[in-house]
Specification:
The protein is an alpha+beta fold. Helices cover 45% and strands 19% of the residues. The chain has three domains: 88 residues, no CATH class; 54 residues, no CATH class; 143 residues, Ribosomal Protein S8, Chain: A, domain 1 (2-Layer Sandwich). The chain contains seven helices and eleven strands. A hairpin with a 4-residue loop joins strand 3 and strand 4. Helix 4 packs antiparallel against helix 5 and helix 6 packs across helix 7.
């Protein structure tokens, strides 16, 4: 049997009976409209007086009816209404927690795959370097043994020693030449440059005092001049050929802050650029990133902060000081 009632006594009796159970239909108290969802296990409140008022029953009639019901019973109905609202709020929070947990799981899986790929690449690079080193050592040993045999044999010693020195010098010539240190120069807008600590090639789009705005990998990076090196083919924006600019070689540890300018980006595009930069910055030892998102509507900033808050690669973030951008710029500390 399915029964409906406005009687609080019947609701209480059902709660005490082992073969019966209460249930309630959810109701929007603000708009006085049914939500058409059934909630089992709890009694529902009666909204008779609220609905009667909405249907233009005379106020005096409604007040007399409420007085005849009694204040205690009215308080119970109010508590039942509050219980229903809290139950709906709890269910919504549980659903949101489930969505966040699923998103976190996906992010964790993606990060694990990314780290596994980096580990495989590192292992392969080390193995290749070891093989190359072993081949070079084996060739050096063979050359040395042959020279020793020649020295022990007959013939003019001076010429043999000179030939041995020439052969050993030839082994050194097989090593990759050391890159020449270019003369110090100031880069200009349009110069092609390389960002060694991030493994990116790009182009200088603006010079701001002692810092360069470099477009690389789809990102706008604000870097000190010492953090970039000259790239092959330094043609200008118009594609005309000109001598490649030369800049001071980057000093290890001299660039631990990278700035990313995301003004004008859509939220998802901005996160993709920041995500790529974090991936490259962590292996390079970069500890802090400055993200310029501006003010605008605030959607880009809110979206980036939400993604950063649940990113295991991020140790924390905060608004920049007022004289360094304030809420238009976020400083991100990497884990």
């Amino acid at each position: 049997m399915l029964a409906t009632t406005h009687s609080g006594l019947l609701k209480a009796a059902v709660a005490d009976h082992p073969l019966m159970a209460n249930a309630a239909m959810d109701f929007d108290e603000t708009n006085l409209a049914p939500l058409y969802t059934l909630r089992a296990g709890v009694p529902g409140a009666s909204h008779a007086f609220a609905i009667a008022s909405r249907l233009d029953f005379p106020d005096g009639l409604v007040e007399r009816a409420r007085a005849r019901v009694g204040e205690d019973r009215f308080r119970i109905e109010h508590l039942l209404t509050e219980l229903g609202a809290r139950a709906r709020d709890l269910q919504e929070k549980q659903l949101e927690a489930g969505r966040l947990a699923e998103a976190s799981r996906r992010d964790h899986e993606a990060l694990s795959l990314r780290l596994a790929g980096i580990d495989r690449e590192r292992t392969a690079a080390l193995a290749a370097a070891r093989r190359a080193g072993e081949e070079f050592l084996a060739e050096a040993r063979r050359t040395l043994e042959r020279l020793v045999r020649d020295l022990r044999g007959e013939g003019p010693r001076t010429r043999t020693i000179r030939d041995a020195r020439d052969e050993l010098a030839g082994l050194g010539d097989r090593l990759p030449p050391e890159a020449p240190r270019p003369p110090v120069a100031t880069p200009a807008a349009g110069d092609r440059v390389r960002v060694p600590h991030l493994g990116l090639d790009g182009r200088v789009v603006e010079v701001r005092g002692g810092r360069l705005v470099v477009l690389a990998g789809g990102m706008r990076l604000s870097l000190p001049a010492g953090a970039v090196a000259a790239a092959a083919g330094g043609g200008g924006e118009d594609g005309a050929s000109r001598p490649a600019a030369s800049f001071p070689p980057p000093v290890a540890g001299s660039c631990d802050t990278t700035e990313l300018d995301l003004r004008g980006f859509r939220a998802e595009e901005g996160w993709e650029a920041l995500d790529r930069l974090i991936d490259r910055a962590i292996p390079a030892g970069t500890g802090e990133i400055g993200v310029i998102h501006g003010f605008g509507t605030g959607r880009l900033r809110a979206y980036l902060l939400e993604r950063l808050a649940r990113d295991p690669r991020v140790a924390g973030f905060q608004d920049a000081p007022a004289d360094q951008g304030g809420q238009g710029r976020t400083v991100v500390r990497l884990a």
